[in-house]
Amino acid sequence: MKKLSVAIVAFLCFGQLTKAQKTAQIKTVLEAEKDYNHAVSQKGIRNGSLSVMDADAMVFKPEPVLATTYYKGSDKNTGKLTVTPTMARISANGDLAFTAGSYIIKNNTDDAEYGEYLSIWRPDLSGKLKIIFNIDMQHPETKETPIVDFKEPTVAANRTINKDPFTGKNIIITTDKLFNSSLNFSSVSAYKEFLTLDGRYFFPGFEPVIGQDKILQFVSNQAISIQALNTGGGRATSSDLAYSYGKATIKKGEISNKYNYIRIWEPDNSHKWNILAEIFSPADEK
Questions:
Q1: pLDDT score for 75
Q2: Roughly what angle, to the nearest 10 degrees, separates helices 165-183 and 187-194?
């Protein structure tokens, strides 16, 4: 009887371990994005957006503000919003994800607004993914066929759960600050050092720039110089996906403007964190 009890306990422990090590799938966040589209089509932009956002979600409109504050009393319930993800990742543990892609807002007239967005997702207490950050930027209508980049999380053989969220957060914030310091010397050199080969660059007024070589060329051709200040960040407990955000003053040629930024980070095989995606959104010039 004692041996039987030990066997049952061992089986249950094994089952819990297997469940804990179950790897998340990219379809989870893509389905959440699909639900977002459905919500805004049925409830309007304001109510539909709030229904899929975390209670503490932040939007950049133009300064970072609680989504509940921004949409309260807002007239942002008119028009038809459609978002089309072209890039997405989810952490192996499923506690962090992001989507990025194009959006269109069509009004009752023939006018339409085109642009790109980036949303960061995390599960609520029930396990349902909710948006915790949303940022967007506008550009003219494009006829280009989007390049889709959806990838399943990579499962490391020695994957361990980071039980101290503050350590993971501090590491990514330190990395972000290091990158910002590098930008002060040379934007091109900094991006060459920190960008993934398939990285994406979302800059207001332009279509997404895809690939390290094209991003470096864009930064060089536009004579972009950046001074940035980190204001926060976070990392998945499985240590395979992270984000950072802050403010930036960007000089393009002789013109200087203020922006908000969000960066998505992923580690390479040597555990060095690199930028997978970066988006800038115009900030208040005050």
A1: 65
A2: 150
Beta strands in the chain (DSSP E): 53-60, 64-66, 80-90, 97-106, 112-123, 129-138, 149-150, 195-202, 209-210, 224-235, 242-252, 255-267, 273-282
Q: Which residues are paired to 260 by β-bridges? A: 247, 281
Q: What is the pLDDT of residues 204-229, one digit of tens each?
A: 999 999 999 999 999 999 999 999 99
Which parts of the chain sit beneath pLDDT 70? 1-21, 73-77, 155-167, 286
pLDDT at 164: 55
Cα–chain-centroid distance for residue 14? 34
Residue 265 contacts residue 241 (beta carbons within 8 Å): yes
Q: What domains can you pick out in the chain, each with its CATH number?
A: 27-150 (3.10.450.50), 165-282 (3.10.450.50)
- Residue 70 per-residue DSSP state: H
- Tokens representing 134 are 């949303």
